[in-house]
Amino acid sequence: MKLLILDAGHCLSLALVREANRRSDTELVIEQGTVATPAMLERVAPDAVIVPPLSQPLELTPLAIKDHADAVEACLDACLAAEVALVWCVSDQLYEEGFDGAIDEHVVPAPRDEGLRRLVQTGDRIRAEHARHLIVRLGPLFALEGSHAWLNELIDSLVTNQPVRAAEDVIFSPTSADAVAMSLIGMLQQQACGANAWGAYHLAGTEPVSAFTFTSMVRTQLATHLEGRGETVALGEVTALNHHHDAKLRRVLNCRRVLDVFGVHQKPWRLEVGRMLDAWCLTRDGEPNADTGESGR
Length: 297
Description:
Blueprint (H helix, E strand, L loop, with lengths): L1 E4 L5 H11 L5 E4 L7 H7 L3 E4 L10 H21 L2 E7 L22 H16 L3 E6 L2 E2 L8 H9 L4 E4 L2 E3 L2 E2 H16 L6 E5 L5 E2 H18 L9 E4 L7 E2 L5 H7 L6 H16 L13
Helix pairs in contact: 1-6, 3-4, 7-9
InterPro entries: NAD(P)-bd_dom_sf, RmlD-like-bd
Protein name: Sugar nucleotide-binding protein
């Protein structure tokens, strides 16, 4: 199976490279840009194109969101012409106002924000025009390297004793980029074997938490790792932010369908963070073969 991955520096793209390097059944072609052109698809002849997600679109400008949506729709046109499957990963922030319970795949986001509505329009086009698509809605991604990685910037801030502010009243499911990469390749391998299970899926880590709780836990685990190495480091303090004073906003994705259809299990984000901190410590020691994406399977 050959996959074309766009946005080479994205944390998910880097995770896909690490996962593919562990396998003998998957070939990746990586492109720096964010658009798959007809000429590119003719040259590469992939089985599918994977478009990584925008991170935290609610914090981006309308122009940045429009540029991403336009790029995805250009990929859609190219994939339709070449009869190539399209995989588009999107942020859970499309569910702008959240839900009281877990959000099922059939619930199409209906945000009020103009930029988010533009992304929903792109999703509507994909669903209406391209039968061979996967729209994969993700919880907030974290990784140790690449753009939109979150965890790397968080660790850097903490070890340089910078204060970190994080929302306490928004509940979501942090999601390991490595776990998403493993799942996507597994899903596409099953599709290549005739699963024919196209559509929208949710993929996120287990145990919904607030950004404040996640950040505090990272700080605690980081302190434990450093103390175990005999290091005394003054870590930055974590303070809580509150944006929704009446009630907590919940963006918790129900990942039951991806389990039922593809057998993909959610990975506990606490274990993934611990694994990544182990890898970060190896990198801190300067070990040349430290693998920041070791899956631990």
